[in-house]
Every structure is written in structure tokens, then in C-alpha cells.
Amino acid sequence: MKAPIDWAHTRSPVPETKEAQAERIKSEKFFQALCQETSIGIALEDLEGHILFANPALCSMLGYTTEELRDMSCSAFSHPEDQKQEGPLFHQLCAGLIDHYKLDKRFIRKGGSQIWGHVSISLLDARYRTAPLVIGMVQDISEKKATEEQLRTSERSLRDVASRLMQAQEIERQRIGRELHDDIGQRFALLTIQLERLHQDLLKARQEAHSWTALRLCKSAEELATDIHELSHELHSSKLRHLGLPAALKELARKTSSQQDLRVDFHAGPLPKNLSPELAMCLFRVGQEALCNVIKHSQTRNVEMDVTRTNGRIVLKIKDFGIGFEPEVSASGIGLSTMRERLRMFGGNLLVNSSPGKGTEIIAEVRH
Questions:
Q1: CA quadruple 230, 234, 239, 245: dihedral sign
Q2: Res 126 pLDDT > 90
Q3: For the chain, which end, N or C, has fewer CB atoms within 10 Å of the first or last residue's CB respectively?
Q4: What is the DSSP track for 178-221?
């Protein structure tokens, strides 16, 4: 049998008119019917947190009968960690500092299992009562929380896969860079020497036409050897490994300036000496990708690149003075996504400040 709400001890001692009494009784019956039929858990509590009434929905959520819940303290079935968060809010409510609060919290059901609930707690209007009451409404959001946890697990798995792919990519870049430098680069250097000797031999034999052909081939081989050398360092920076991030970025700025119609002004502030090789490589690749984007898209001749440590963060900025773009439209490109994913592996983030005609600023931040 469904227990009615006992309002007797909460009513005001002030005499009521017949009209007011009839209206109050009507409201109480409506409220009781609403409490009995709704799927939302409802409880009335005193200012000590003891339950005076619990509707069937709340009883079903918690696994207790109405009689068992009556006079129980809400803290008895609240998760201890969430109770620490809610306790101060409840005291503020009872003290009149706030009139309501909402939060998501865990409940311990009878038997020990847990559910998640979205709770809304308010002080009831005290005009018809001698003692203030607290009304709590609970919506079961366990399924929602389970879905959110599944999404978080999937995101963690995707980030882990992306991290392993990037690590594998970095290992492969190092391998190819060493192969280009130590094998193919050396073979081109040897070819250049042989062509130079052939040029000299043909000159001595007075075969000038053939000797000049050999010289042109020698020059072409030298250019190819230089290109291979540059490419090997783009794939795997020896300066980064031996001299650190500032030196590697400075060399990147120098090479970009010399190879492109672009002036790159580089500045480095003090950086931690214990910067890990993995984080240094991450920031170096972000700098590479950012300069590549500048060359491809910005239509500028001036770039500023700055790396320093400020407020517990390592900050790398690449600023151009080109045509800019609308970040809302173009900020999801592969280059920017790759930079974001690299930084996310280290708990960092990428900011993009740009607008048409006013250039673009890329800011990579990592806590360190």
C-alpha cells in the first residue's frame, strides 16, 4: 500500500480560512498523485538530511521500501566521494545562502550496486509550515554515464592508436633519413668524384665536348647529393638529437629562409634542460608543419617563430603576415589535425588565431 505524505507536523499554526484549507488540500492531493506516478525519484527531507517521504520511483532506484527509507539519512546511500562535494552545497542550502543546487552523483543501492543520478535539490516554500523542508528530485542517468564512459574509452583507444602510428612514423622517418644520408647520399658523393675525374681525363685527352658534358653531369650529381642531404635532415634532425630543440628550430628557420622566398625570424627563450627527446621531437615536427603551411597557403614573405617557457608551459609560436583564413572553416585540415594530435599525446593543445587579410598565428602549448 502506498504511504501518504504526512503533512501534519509541517503545517503552520496560523488558522486557515476554509477556502485556503480547501486549496491546500487540493494542492497536497495533486502533489501526492504526481509523486506517485512520476518516473523521477522524489524525496522530502528535513534540514538534517533525514528522509520524511520517498516516492515509488526513488524506492525503485535505490532498492529500498518506503518504510526503510523513512528517517534514513541521504548520506547513507550517497557515494562517499560525491558526498564530499554535495555536503557543503547542502549546508549552504539549509543556511539560506543558496535556494537550490544541481549535480550528478552516485548512489549506493541496497545490496551494494551503484547508479548515477542527476539530482536537483531545493528549499520548499515555508509559508504553510513551521519547519522548512528540502525537496530532492533524482533522474536515473546510469545509461547516459555508461555511454559517456564508452565514448571516453573509445577516444582513449583512438588516441593510443594515433600515438603508436606517429611513433612508428617517426621510427620510419629516422630509418629513411639514415638510409638517405649513409647509403644513397654517400653513393652520390662517390659518383660526383668519379664524374669529376672523368671530366679531368677528357680534358687531358682534348675531348672538350665530352669533358663539358661530364662536368654538367658532375654538377647535377652534386645538386642531387645536396638535396638528399637536406631531405635526410628534414626526416631526422641530427641537431635536434645532439644540440636540442632551440638549435634544431634555428636550423629549420635558416634552411627555410635559404630555400624559399621567405624570411623566418627565430627567437628562443630559456627552455628546461630536462626536455625529453620525444617532446622535443613533437615540437620540432609542429614547427616543420607550421612553416610548411605558411609556404603553401599564406602568400607572405615574413614569418616570426618563437619558442620559450612561460607560466609552466613551453610555448611555440609561428606567426605569418599573409592572407589569413577563417578558422571555423579551415581549422580542420590534415596539417592542423596532425599538429593537434601530436600535442595531445603530451597533454598539450594548439591554438589557431587567424582572420582574412590579417595573417595567422599558430600557438603550440605543452605543460612542463
A1: positive
A2: no
A3: N
A4: HHIIIIIHHHHHHHHHHHHHHHHHHHHTT-HHHHHHHHHHHHHH
Sheet of 360-367, strand order:
263-268, 302-310, 313-320, 360-367, 349-354
Round to whole Å and give the CA distance between 10 and 8. Answer: 5
Asked if 313 and 366 touch (Cβ cutoff 8 Å), the reply is yes
Q: Which residue has the cell 504526512?
A: 6
Query: In terms of Cα–Cα distance, which of 123, 162, 125, 139 is closest to 57?
Result: 139
Q: What are the structural domains, with CATH classification, of the chain?
A: 8-140 (3.30.450.20), 237-368 (3.30.565.10)
Measure the CA–CA gap between 212 and 249, rounded to whole angstroms: 40
Buried b (16+ CB within 10 A) or exposed e, 121-152: bbbeeeebeeeebbbbbbbbbeeebeeeeeee
Whose grid coordinates read 583507444?
157
Return the pLDDT at 8: 45
Q: Which triple of cell numbers denotes residue 309?
A: 617557457
Cα separation, 347 vs 321, in Å, equals: 29
Q: Name the nearest CA neighbour of 350 among 320, 327, 325.
A: 327
The sheet that has 51-54: what strands, in order across it?
51-54, 41-45, 134-140, 114-123, 100-108
Of 305, 317, 294, which is closest to residue 366 (Cα–Cα)?
A: 317
Which residues have C-beta within 8 Å of that of residue 317, sequence separation ≥ 6? 304, 305, 306, 307, 361, 362, 363, 364
C-alpha distance from residue 89 to each of 38, 58, 97, 320 (Å)? 26, 21, 9, 49
Decide: 221 and 205 in contact? Cβ < 8 Å.
no
Mean pLDDT value of segment 20-29:
63
Q: Is the pTM of this model over 0.70?
A: no
Q: Do 139 and 40 form a contact (C-beta atoms < 8 A)?
A: yes
Helices (H) and strands (E) in the chain, counts: 12, 10
| Number of CB atoms found within 10 A of residue 349's CB | 14
Tens-digit pLDDT profile for residues 300-349 = 999 999 999 999 999 999 999 999 888 766 555 667 888 888 898 888 99
Grid coordinates given for 310: 612561460
